[in-house]
Amino acid sequence: MSEPLLKVRELKKYFPVKRSLLEAFRKKEERYVRAVDGISFDIRKGETLALIGESGCGKTTAGRTILRLIEPTEGEIIFDGTDVTQLSQDELRPFRKRMQIIFQDPYSSLSPRMRIGDAIAHPLLVHGLAEKDEAKEIALKMLRRVGLTPEDEFYDRYPHHLSGGQRQRVVIARAMVLKPEFIVADEAVSMIDVSMRASILELLESFKEEYNLSQLFITHDIAVGKLIADRIAVMYLGKIVEMGPIREVLRNPAHPYTMALIQAVPSIVRRKKEKKLRITGEVPNAAEIPPGCRFHPRCPFADELCRGDEPELVEVSHGHFVACHHPLH
Amino acid sequence: MLLEVKNLGVYYYTLSGVVRGAENVSFSVREGEWITFVGESGSGKSTVAHAVINLVPSPGKIVTGEVLFQGKNLLAMKPEELRKIRGKDISMVFQDPMTSLDPLRKVGDQIVEAMRVHGVDDDEARQRAKEILEKVNLPADRLDYYPHQLSGGQRQRISIAIAMAFNPKLLIADEPTTALDVIVQDAIMDLIDEMKDEGTSIYFVTHDISLAAERSDRIAVMYAGELVEIGTTEQIIENPLHPYTRALVESVPDLWKESEVRAIPGYPPDLRNPPSGCRFHPRCPIFKEKAELKGRCDVRGPETLEVEPGHFVACHLYGGA
User: Fold this and answer.
1) Cβ neighbours of B94 (radius 10 Å)
2) CA-CA 20 to 30 A from B201: which of A21, A147, A311, B117?
3) Best A52, A193, A222, A277 residue to mutate vs chain B (most B CBs within 10 Å)
């Protein structure tokens, strides 16, 4: 196999928690939200990694930090051999073109005052890749490519004329017009009606094949992850707790949290109520991460060891990693 | 029959025209059953749920139909009569619990208030508030919290606790888990299941057919303001008859389905100006294939037919005039 296109090593992003005046006066220690708390993974050329987790697990922060839309606190992000955390904004420019993001909300990620054709042409002009007329030509082709036809009619429309699904097509067209090598798709289909999701996923898949794209696909929905990803990484409170080939992890989850997530997903095939692994409570605040294994307060198998020691991510079978003192197999 | 809805129609009188939000909707809810309405946004599923309790938001108006609850037409009742039924015999839970909880008052006071309206004295209401909080797995000290101090999942537990307070005959739940993570969603669904076990009929609304399939006895499918198919969960999932229902079942990403996921081509229509005939015909794969359907599906609306016992569909493929 080839060298990974992206290598993330011990990436951390901490946000300081505002202290009250009284706390500052008493010199109370500064606290941090450890949104991303040391994650490592690779993504190969043409590979899609699904980053799965509940709200507040740090998956969105991770995606943005990797693109340096948020500055990392610590760690390395090696893209095609270069550690992009060490680059100045100027040096970063050529990398920006190669790494794009698709946001969750197609309502707020498009300027309401820009015609959608111009929105797609805009990145070409910004990066100096085309003159105005040529950029328009390319944008028209792109509109056609994402299924917004007749394209010359769609070119002149504004975002508010479009449905959520159509807007997400525009957002995808705008990201793909630069022919990126790597995409962060952050909940790219979660705000779209279930019946429309499949068509957006198909569209992403077709670009993946055409450009041999690598993708970090961030989602809370494992069923969507299964459709699009080669591998999956499950995040809980800033850490990756399990990672591996998607089918292997779905069939043989090793972490109790992964198991609970999988069992909680409703299915039209497995309707009969199976015996479920009961986990209690909700994800705690990332400013107050429990000691030891951060999942232990909710875990039915937690013991002394789990309360005191944080487990490392170790390989349980080929390419399948888990961070748990008592893995399920 | 606990609830019978006959020929319900709701229009929204907007500045840009009349939106035909729901038309010709008829169905019933039996004692102790869980029925789920599925459909895309704009299909009318939420409109119908609100119309049933005469709570259609402005500029919407109920233009036709009646809603018989234990034989009495809710739509013909005086507001104070209906208020006595709402919250007691019929409870509601919505997608965003913040819309039904008062942000300025403690959770406990709101539960007590809800009971006071229906004639329970304050001491007893306090006691019962503690009990129902326990039932939804929240510690009793949450009674002294304000809604913003709780997570989305906890807020939804509170609104279910309030809905449970009177052992209602019917619970109307409109996308109550849409904003929640799957594990929390599953726990909320368990709570609703418990209400069903205690005899409450559940009228559930969701855009997610997998969620519908998991716990419902029956499923009703809405498209573009009309009810297109209704049947038992098995009938709808294993043997969907309407081309839209089939497409919907095939379009959903599912963890355990091995067959490929297929997108539904096209977009739902604008209900200011819905398509002629069957509203699904512009997106219908069978209409496109079969020339003999021309002049039929695109001209006349289909009749609703009972194709097998309890399984109704509104589609020209199954006959009718």
Assistant:
1) 20
2) B117
3) A193
